[in-house]
Amino acid sequence: xxxxxxxxxxxxxxxxxxxxxxxxxxxxxxxxxxxxxxxxxxxxxxxxxxxxxxxxxxxxxxxxxxxxxxxxxxxxxxxxxxxxxxxxxxxxxxxxxxxxxxxxxxxxxxxxxxxxxxxxxxxxxxxxxxxxxxxxxxxxxxxxxxxxxxxxxxxxxxxxxxxxxxxxxxxxxxxxxxxxxxxxxxxxxxxxxxxxxxxxxxxxxxxxxxxxxxxxxxxxxxxxxxxxxxxxxxxxxxxxxxxxxxxxxxxxxxxxxxxxxxxxxxxxxxxxxxxxxxxxxxxxxxxxxxxxxxxxxxxxxxxxxxxxxxxxxxxxxxxxxxxxxxxxxxxxxxxxxxxxxxxxxxxxxxxxxxxxxxxxxxxxxxxxxxxxxxxxxxxxxxxxxxxxxxxxxxxxxxxxxxxxxxxxxxxxxxxxxxxxxxxxxxxxxxxxxxxxxxxxxxxxxxxxxxxxxxxxxxxxxxxxxxxxxxxxxxxxxxxxx
Length: 481
Known about the structure:
Layout: E1 6-13, H1 17-27, E2 34-38, H2 44-49, H3 51-68, H4 74-77, H5 84-94, H6 101-109, E3 112-116, E4 119-121, E5 126-129, E6 132-142, E7 146-148, H7 164-168, E8 176-180, H8 184-196, E9 200-205, H9 216-228, E10 231-235, E11 241-243, E12 260-263, E13 268-271, E14 273-276, E15 280-282, E16 316-318, H10 329-347, H11 361-364, E17 367-370, E18 375-380, H12 383-388, E19 393-399, H13 403-408, E20 415-421, E21 426-434, H14 441-449, H15 454-457, H16 470-479
Parallel strand pairs: 1-2, 1-6, 2-3, 6-16, 8-9, 8-14, 9-10
Antiparallel strand pairs: 4-5, 5-6, 7-15, 11-12, 12-13, 17-18, 18-21, 19-20, 20-21
Helix pairs in contact: 1-10, 3-5, 3-8
């Protein structure tokens, strides 16, 4: 018996930003067809449970802190605090109240069919979604992302701890919170919980610093900022056991039962909720990878065309967090653009000539902003990473103290560092810490990706009076070394 298939040129499993971009680019300007398979909401983790809601929760605290630092404004604020319900209302508007109809409309307007359900590979170019079987003429793209990991600590899973999804979509504010982790999610979560009025926020950090992959001063400054807002940080500390006698599955973002007791070995903590921000794992366990000769459960390795690393394979691709190269939304979308262009070229039997068909920036030129207080913005390699990769480097760093930063807010505190390749005299990396430094990082990204020599950067004159004038101070300090 011949099996009946629903045929598409391109099938994408996973409807987040990376999946959406891959589908759109693969069929752009053509009569090719595409299907986007999504089990939850089209728009994915970023739109509803990560980037968008977290930044919506963080921004009001940044604005209030900035206002309190400004004479003429702070006097009008008195002891004003954030309006919790108003902050949540704005967040809910940004996540469209978990209604993905606008995303579906976008997809349909771009010639992409939405198929609801859990997609899995069923053989070469085959995808199963429930009882439906899809077949791809040209490509299948995996864009299933990652899910939050919960450490194997006695009693922790049974306590139904909050993960990032609960924390970004909270409906009530726990007065006492323990956060397990010291990375980006943990630091941002501690920032907004403190700003929104949590009375006790305690971070349990397994290592000796926050944000350990960043330059050393980053973790120190973020820790100082958190402590100034009442957050307690316990380094070299991990939970040994968790007990929650009155546990209830109350739903996402609601406190999951009664008080939680956390055993640290030498002491115990009692808290209203525990948030686990201890890493993520690829969503590939039920993806059917074994049907095409791959190993279920791990990251899906790819080459720079985003083609899955497997002999004789030119139809299977993986973009975004699921391939493990760079777990950031903007880098997943970047990979997806490359992937879509590659699929389009191969389907039209065009040669993959030109840099647009190879992803390179997601390896050593990645920009990132961490929206703590102070903010962290970085791109490329740290000094330590550059040394590990065998580069001969020079570094320059200084406090951000220019007219623009002083005008931005009283008692501005910031720091900047550049990592320079001695062989090429181009930037390998840049890191900025301070209020609103996120808006500085694209200039650094252009310098790193474009391999702009230092001699050229002297002629990139920063406007006065802006915080960007720190670029001139950095170049002067480098000249004087």
